[in-house]
Each structure stands twice: as C-alpha cells, then as structure tokens.
C-alpha cells in the first residue's frame, strides 16, 4: 500500500508539473487541486488503508504541506498587491527536473522503510523489553586510542509472569553490519514462549550502536572494508584467517562478558527484572552469520550452554590455523547439541568442500550435530531486514522466498529446538530441507 501511494504521488506530481511546463506558468487552481487531492488520498489511506504515520513519512508529509502553502501564498493569481493585479508566477523549464528530484529525495525514507506488520507470536506470555550498556573494565576498547574500556549494548525481551517462574536464557549475536534488532521476530517469539532473550550488540561491528548515554557508534571503516573484500573474493585465504581472528575474539569476549554479567545480576538479592526470572545455568546461544560463528565458539567455553544454533554462518572460530594452503581445525569434541540453518547455496558449497569445510568437521564432532537448508532463501532472509527494508535486504542478498513465511518457519524451528534441549519439551523432528 505504501509503494502504491508513492507511485500515485509521483505520477500526480509529474502530471501537475508537466502542465506547468507546457503552459510556462504555475496555475494556482491546478496546484491547489492536485495537492488537496494528494493530501486527501493520503489521509484516506491512513484512516482506512492501514498506512501508519511513522518517521519514514515525515518528509513526504512535509512536501505535501509545503505544496499546499505555496499554492495559497506564493502563487495567488489575481490577488491585488500595491494596487496591481498579480499574475501567476512564471515556470522555468529547469524547475521540472529539480522539483521531481526533490520529491524523490523526500520519498527515499518511505521507499527504504515501508510500514512493517509485525509477525504474530505463538506463545501465551506477554513480554516486555529493557536495554542496558555494560562496561567491561577488564578490556580496553581496541577501536579507540584513549584507553577507555569496552562497552557492550544489550537488550532483553522477557516474559511477564506473576507465578514466580524462572526461564531459560537465550543469547543472540548479530551478523556483520547487523544490530541488536536484527532478529526481533525471533526474540519476541521466544519471549512469548517462556524465554529470557538477550540480544548482544557489538559496537564497531554493528552498523550503529546507540548507548544508554545517547552516544551513537558507527561501524568501523576498516572492518567494513575487510568484510567487503572477503565477500567479494578479494582476500587471500591466509590473510582471511589472520584478519578474522580478532573479530571472533572480540565477539566471544563480548558474549562471555555478557553472560558473566547476567549470572552476577541473577545472584543478587532482590535482583530486578529480567534477572530475577532468569536461569543463568540453562543457556541457549544463537547468531546470524559472523554472530553464528561467535555463538558456536562461545558454546564450547561455558558448561551452562545447553544448545547452539548457527544461522548461515561459517564457523570461523573453529579454524585454528592455516598452512600449506589448508585450514587446520579444532578436533576436540563439540560438547553440546549444534544446529546449522543454511541457505541452499551455502549448504551446497559445504557439500562441495566436504571434510575441508569447517562446519562439517565441527558438526561431526558435536554431541548432536545437524544441518538443514532453506530453499530459495538468501543470506538476509535469516534476519528481519526483509520485513523492515525490502530494498536494502535485496541489495545485501535475499532469495525469491516469501520473507514472512521464511522467518515464521525458521523461528518455529529455533523455538522447538530450544524447547527440546533447554526445557525437555516436545519432539525434535527436523527435515533436511525446508
């Protein structure tokens, strides 16, 4: 509906400006008529068509209001001024492309971020959310030169319960250029089914991080450049190994710090929500892409972790070295159940490399290692970005599969997997292909 309105708006403005271009003057009654009709159409869509009034529509709204004002005040043909009859303003030919460019610029936020209809949740718990910025005094921030400590942003979604229950803890790590809301639909689905969910935002690896004091940290330029080179097959494997080691160390240190902090807060007398209802000894980890790799590595390090899910991520942290053109890999048994959810393309690439592919090695060493694939899905289909911004998601990689259906299916698998291993509920019946 939003794209339909924007298309109608652009066509109407093109017709209106085309009339002025042909007449070589602005005609106030035409200006007023078109703008009034556009505003009425917009209001009808808001009232009856479900078009929301959010930030993305601020600029198109300003554009329409300015058009209405200009029709009334700036081009009042026939209005007397100093005893003379004022003629309609002349229309310069260059105004047509300038006007349409201005309109397009005003439409960009609405084009990139159309109205979002949240996916429904299946659980019976209402849920709330709260965010924190925690400071790890044991680590110096490597992206700064001022000696400041590492800061990590976290956000929780947790069940609202008056029964004095304790709930398992799920910790999430986003992918490169992601942020804490990357998989919002999964967090709310899990919280509604009786989990405390903590999404960890990794400053300088996230596209942006807004801390509690209002500071906004943008993704590190070198990190962005290196990711682009790797994804573009422009980095030799030996350099790839060297570059990615600090990334995994940073992220696993973030995850371990957050889990330590949660455990500490849960042990306090009169612990506040959500820590008063969290079981820090019953943890599930999951992450997307680079975050999935970090979740897998962190899953080795804590006995409280009961299960791990890797969403379309290569387990870089399980590569221990690179020599003679080959990766060396961790051959220690993986101590907890491990599930990989991949696109068909990623799955088929792994099949091609066989035992030289790190995911296959680690899955074979896991207590219960499984891999499933989603057909017609792209890398970003395992996040909520296709719901929030279809154009950006398509640019970064989506398949032809319906975005909402893909997320509902994936979130259901995540929920059932954690139910089975963290709550001992249900049966685990996973297909190889979805």
From TrEMBL:
Transmembrane domains' residue ranges: 29-51, 57-75, 96-117
Keyword annotations of the record: Hydrolase, Lipid degradation, Lipid metabolism, Membrane, Transmembrane, Transmembrane helix
SUPFAM superfamilies reported for this sequence: alpha/beta-Hydrolases
A GO biological-process term: lipid catabolic process
InterPro entries: AB_hydrolase_fold (IPR029058)
A single MF term (Gene Ontology): 1-alkyl-2-acetylglycerophosphocholine esterase activity
Residue ranges of coiled coil: none
PANTHER family per record: PLATELET-ACTIVATING FACTOR ACETYLHYDROLASE
Protein name: Platelet-activating factor acetylhydrolase
Phylogenetic placement of the source organism: Bacteria, Bacillati, Bacillota, Clostridia, Lachnospirales
